[in-house]
Amino acid sequence: MTPRRRLAGIGAFTLTSALLLSACGGGSGDDPEAANEGPSTGIVTVSNGEPQNPLIPTMTNETYGSKVISNIFAGLVYYDAEGQVHNEMAESIESEDNQTWTITLKDGWTFTDGTPVTAQSYVDAWNYGAKLSNKQNLSYFFEPIEGFSYDKDSELTGLTVVSDTEFTVKLNQPESDFPMRLGYAAFMPLPESFFDDPKAAGETPVGNGPYKVETWEHNSLIELRPNEDYKGERTVQNGGVDLMAYTEEDTAYNDLLGGSLDIVTNVPSSSFATFEDELGERAVNQPSAVIQVINVPEYVKEFQGEAGTMRREAISMAIDRDQITETIYNGSRTPATDFTSPVIDGWTEELPGNEVLKYDAAAAKKLWDEAEAMDPVGADFTLQIASNADSDHQTWVDAVCNNVRSSLEIGCEFDPYPTFDEFLDARDNEGISGIFRGGWQADYPAMSNFLGPIYGTGAGSNDMGYSNKEFDAKLKEGNGASDPAEAIEHYKEAQTILLEDMPGIPLWYQNVTAGFSESVDNVVFGWDSDPLLYQVTKSE
Questions:
Q1: What is the DSSP string of 106-119?
Q2: pLDDT band at 295 (very low <50, low <70, confident <90, very high)
Q3: What angle do CA 477, 482, 484 make, to 5 degrees?
Q4: What does the pLDDT read at residue 539?
Q5: Could you write out the DSSP letters of every residue in 335-353?
Q6: Spatial contact of 443 and 353, defined as CB atoms under 8 Å apart
Q7: Residue 58: strand, helix, or coil
Q8: What is the dihedral of CA 31, 33, 35, 37, to 10 degrees?
Q9: For 21, 84, 343, 532, which has the most beta carbons within 10 A of its beta carbon?
Q10: Mapping DSSP to helix (H, G, I), strand (E, B) and coil, where does residue 405 land?
């Protein structure tokens, strides 16, 4: 990619060619003839779960909530199925030096409460998200903007409103990929009414996207209906979407087979060997920007210090990723060789130090014994791997535990939490006594998004409490590089540090394994594994 000093259309940023995904089930939704037929009117039903947090863009960093946020809010840019970046509310995003950016908005946009979306709507929302006392999960994303602080409440002094349709952003250093990030939830605008009562707004959000929230029946259903005043390119082609809160993936899949559910976003492992035969052309199995890891909390004493690092490496080398991905996932997962994803530009299998991600039972046992001699945990130690029980994770956890028991000769067991939000709450409050599952679905298509938000000091999704100044410095160098190739080299160097510290243990890259019913057409799953709901058509 050739870097540009001025960026008016944002089209300079794209994913590697490995991610050029084909549409599934009746076309991409961009067929001119289909568009001339007009939108369908049926309500599309989609498997989902209960969001962990109120529906506030800067608070939402998990998949159930993000399916709502991404559809009820419109940002400066949006990502298409291939991960290419398109202007949405932005007329232009320009910079002479990649440090001070001028953002011009398209005029005439409104929120669903009828109030205008202005430059102030963005500046106020970003300041709210960045403010320390607001304790927003995605505050980390504002760190590059001048004035951000982890230590005190402060304004983002780098934001300046020029007019209703123009504002400027001054960063702490030049960052050429800054525009690419602006389609992520953290950078959505908020209406004035939000600041009067954020709690109420999180329950009944007011957005500016292709859909609006009609109702939210907690632990049951979120009804999204078309926003007739939406002015962007993500034109809704259906009568609405019902996001159904399932606690069992097998139940959702059986409902799909029975015709009472239109789209399943995650096929259960029990059906991996059969779902493509059962669904035929309605089965989806394609690469996506998703990785599964096991995260190691820094507060767990068994994994602290030199002996703790050796134990992390031993556990990693005890896991037979090839066997698990083939026998459990029927090849729909690929053993991880780094912390990012093969569908992201810059990924490589040849990362120095990644031998710790390869199965070697003898080396794993040797490392564990050396750690035990240095700082013993005792012969009765049992490794606990925590995850939510309302999704299909116990199968692979049991397989990992079998590997651990066999290779390391220690105990290992699944530590289940009944629901995803209960698991997340325990994780966020340091209530997990062992290690825990950590899946990452990319926010925007770049290597940096797999590194900074998860492993950067103080980052919103750094659920382990990991901190390494050398890693942070490498990440900053990568973010500040003017040339994409140079940035990639810095990100690779940052990953070698992670391979030494092992704050997370990469397991495998994840395909989208999904399916849809005969009642819907134009079903497309994008680069990030989410369906493009606005494109789906369904007759009454």
A1: PTT-B-TTSPBP-H
A2: very high
A3: 85
A4: 84
A5: E-SSSS-TTSTT--S--TT
A6: no
A7: helix
A8: -150
A9: 343
A10: helix
Give 218's DSSP letter. Answer: T
* pLDDT tens, residue by residue, 297-335: 999 999 999 999 999 999 999 999 999 999 999 888 999
d(CA 119, CA 106): 10
Give, rounded to a whole angstrom, the gap between the first and last alpha carbons of the chain. Answer: 45
Dig out the tokens for 250 from the structure: 């097998």
Measured distance CA(361)–CA(490) in Å, rounded: 32
Nearest to 353 by CA among 406, 316, 404, 320: 316
Q: Which amino acid is at 344?
A: I
Q: Report the range of poorest mean pLDDT among 23-32, 49-58, 434-443.
A: 23-32
- Rounded CA gap, 522 and 540, in Å? 15
Closest CA to 122 of 190, 198, 196: 190
Q: How far, in Å, CA of 39 to CA of 521, rounded?
A: 12
Tokens of 433: 């006594």
Q: Cα separation of 294 and 387, whole Å?
A: 10
Would you say the pTM of this structure is higher than 0.70?
yes
DSSP 221-255: EEEEEE-TT--SS----SSEEEEEE-S-HHHHHHH
Say whether 49 sits in a helix, a strand or coil.
Answer: coil
